[in-house]
Specification:
Number of strands: 13
Shape: elongated
Distance between the termini: 45 Å
Mean pLDDT: 88
Radius of gyration: 23 Å
Largest sheet: 7 strands, mixed
Length: 325
């Protein structure tokens, strides 16, 4: 059985575990050892007890610093055939190992590390950085005007087939990039959101989160629907992302077939007080307009479910709404 041990100076171990599980869910047996938090910590004893307990398991150990005392104390254990020691750890590598099969090889782990190195970079969205004064003084004509999609068409007889549609107020982020793209084996992501499509900074930031090898488009909702109804789209495994249930309903009404319809996160960042919303889960908060849109969505597709990450329990929205009535 695959076991993961995260051991670091201070409380980094617990912190990185919490963050990883927030993004990909609990996908592996993980133990954390926060070393030297108190003077009484007996780190050597903790390691000894851990490896004695898991001597027949496949163990992946993550530490913070190559030259740190935590890593030094684990070097001896790394000589065991069932132990792989990874130091200088970061979140992408940890999550890749969490999601990997139990028989993941050290060669595959090296590939994870090589990929993670590429993610360590200075974020540059391009263009010359301006001072606030210069930015405010820029002529209005220099600012790009919002793109307008052509007038909506009728898709009453749409034959389009889309792999999945997910409502997620963060659009492309860790849960989508690290888990749903793999779970659904998608080849492309289409973000259907008017605001993101008309904001170059948002677009660039979202595209940076797209995993390698996956194509992405960020379009206004009407234009995204037009693209999804192109016959070429049906030949790809596409994940469609919307920020609101209302937009998801519009997509669903205009696309002939969607294999998986999922409400993950919505309503948390719209600036509307939570007291004015129906809170279905800590990550799904609906205004009255969104509540009606969700009822209409379920009427179209009764298999619409609520699920943050693939290994969470899948709940049908219909069942949840029925209990509220």
């Amino acid at each position: 059985m695959k076991q993961i041990l995260i051991a670091t100076h201070g409380k980094m171990a617990s912190g990185i575990r919490y963050t990883a599980e927030l993004i990909v869910g609990k996908m592996a047996e993980i133990t954390t050892i926060d070393a030297y938090v108190t003077p009484e910590d007996n780190v050597e004893k903790k390691f000894e007890e851990y490896f004695a307990q898991h001597e027949n398991d496949r163990i992946f150990v993550f530490t913070d610093l190559m030259g740190g005392s935590v890593n030094q104390k684990l070097l001896g254990y790394s000589q065991k055939e069932n132990v792989t020691l990874i130091t200088g750890t970061n979140l992408p590598v940890l999550m890749q190992v969490m999601m990997a099969d139990d028989d993941v090889t050290e060669e595959e782990i090296q590939e994870f590390i090589d990929d993670a190195r590429e993610e360590l970079q200075v974020v540059d969205l391009g263009g010359e950085k301006k001072s606030p004064a210069k930015e405010n003084a820029a002529p209005a004509a220099e600012k790009s005007a919002p793109k307008k999609a052509p007038a909506p068409q009728s898709y009453d007889n749409s034959t389009a087939k889309i792999t999945a549609l997910r409502v997620d107020d963060r659009l492309i982020h860790g849960q989508v990039a690290m888990t749903w793209t793999k779970q659904l084996a998608v080849q492309g992501i289409v973000v259907a959101n008017d605001e993101a499509a008309n904001d170059n900074t948002q677009k660039m930031a979202l595209k940076m989160a797209v995993p390698g090898g996956i194509k992405s488009l960020i379009k206004p909702v009407d234009e995204a629907i037009r693209i999804l109804n192109n016959p070429k789209a049906s030949k790809m495994r596409i994940l469609v992302l919307t920020r609101t249930v209302k937009d998801a309903l519009k997509v669903r009404q205009s696309v002939g077939e969607i294999g998986f319809l999922n409400v993950g996160n919505t309503g948390r960042f719209d600036g509307i007080d939570v007291s004015e919303k129906l809170v279905l889960t800590p990550t799904i908060m609906l205004t009255k307009t969104e509540q009606q849109a969700l009822k209409d969505l379920v009427a179209l597709d009764p298999k619409t479910c609520m699920q943050q990450v693939p290994n969470d329990e899948q709940k049908l929205v219909k069942d949840v709404l029925d209990k509220l009535n």
